[in-house]
Amino acid sequence: MLRGQAIRVLAIGLFLTVVPMGTVGSQERPMKIAFLSSLSGPFAFWGVNARDGMKMAIAEVNEAGGVLGRPVELVERDDRNNPAEAITSFRSLVEREGILAAGGVISSDVALAVSREAESLRVPLFLTMAGSHAILRKSSRYTFRTCLVAAPMYVQAIAAIIQYAKHARVGAIIADYAWGHAIRESLERYVATLPGVRLQVEVAPVTAADFTPYLRRLQGFDPQILVIAGHPPGNPIIVRQAAELGMRQQLVGSVLPPELMVQRGGDAVFGRFIDYSCVDFTHPVYRKLAAKYYMMYKRYFDNSAFSGYVIVRMVADAAKRANSTDPRAIAERIRKGRFVQPGYGWPLSFTEWGEMKEARIIFFTIERGEAPAGICPGCGWFQKYQFRSTPVEPYVPPE
């Protein structure tokens, strides 16, 4: 028996000597980060990219040794764009899976519901899109934005475009849900009150497939610019159908994946559609990551994908700096710290309630041509930088 035990000890010792120093031991209990967002429904394209950005970051973190000597594992849940289902999933992730954090949320309706659970359970929740200004409260301490700013912040930047171009008539189409109504409220506050500016807003269902009736009503108004930032799923169809109706105005979008816009919007997108980016797609580090992402998933490394990547990196960094895997310690480190990811649109630092403090929105158009090498081979289009906003003042919730 002793001889057999000695052989087993020797075998274990030999095994340990060949484990690469940069990898995580398989015996360690993994730290779990959750992807909670849409893998089905109208926001699935955003959700899939956010998830895969998280997966790419987790692979890199584990290759580098994990966090505090432990591997990181991604646990996935599809919220199906359903607030009730998202709440149930989040509770299960916290109580059964023991997650450190969850991220990737796209829908404002979902975020409004789940953020309340995050605050109650004291587990960090990271929003990729979900820009309704009602999501964060002054008392929020566990919900953080990472890409899309609150609706009033975005509309202030759009208002600056309208003022600069001296537009007098502004048309808008919004979706009938939290984000759409947040955009409408912000347009009425920051655009309709501009001297000499008139605003007409049309409200359509989130799942609308034909925007011709709304566009025809706007045609009678003869707008000089169309703001479609309040209807994310409808952006490609609106751009295409507006062109079919002979409307040549520039359209301001709602943080659409450029790949999705080209696939569904066609030629009408080129040169006419201007949109928001939280990614500095001109940066060499972005281009390196984008080429890696395309090689892995055969998709473009867009806002959602980079946001998912940053969420994982930021949580891992916070855990290391806090020397803790306690979700409360991680949230506090993030809230009081500053995370810089080269190639991202701006450093991530936060107000006490989780709003981004350093956002400077990048606006771009989509043009015909070839993207930088490796980013989207053969796509036939690229993002063209137009300008960057001045620093956007963080939105302060009323309560």
Molecular structure report:
The chain has 399 residues and is of the alpha/beta class. It has 12 helices and 14 strands. It has a 7-stranded mixed beta sheet. A 5-stranded parallel beta sheet has the order 2-1-3-4-5, sandwiched between helices. Helix 8 (235-244) packs parallel to helix 9 (258-265). It starts with a helix and ends in an 11-residue tail after the last strand.
List the topology elements.
Layout: H1 2-17, E1 31-37, H2 44-63, E2 72-78, H3 83-97, E3 101-105, H4 108-121, E4 125-127, E5 143-145, H5 151-165, E6 169-175, H6 178-190, E7 198-204, H7 212-221, E8 225-230, H8 235-244, E9 250-252, H9 258-265, E10 273-277, H10 284-297, H11 303-322, H12 327-336, E11 338-339, E12 348-349, E13 362-368, E14 381-388
Parallel strand pairs: 1-2, 1-3, 3-4, 4-5, 6-7, 6-8, 8-9, 9-10
Antiparallel strand pairs: 10-13, 11-12, 13-14
Put the structure in a nutshell.
The protein has 399 residues and is an alpha/beta fold. It is built from twelve helices and 14 strands. The chain has helices at 2-17, 44-63, 83-97, 108-121, 151-165, 178-190, 212-221, 235-244, 258-265, 284-297, 303-322, 327-336; strands spanning 31-37, 72-78, 101-105, 125-127, 143-145, 169-175, 198-204, 225-230, 250-252, 273-277, 338-339, 348-349, 362-368, 381-388.
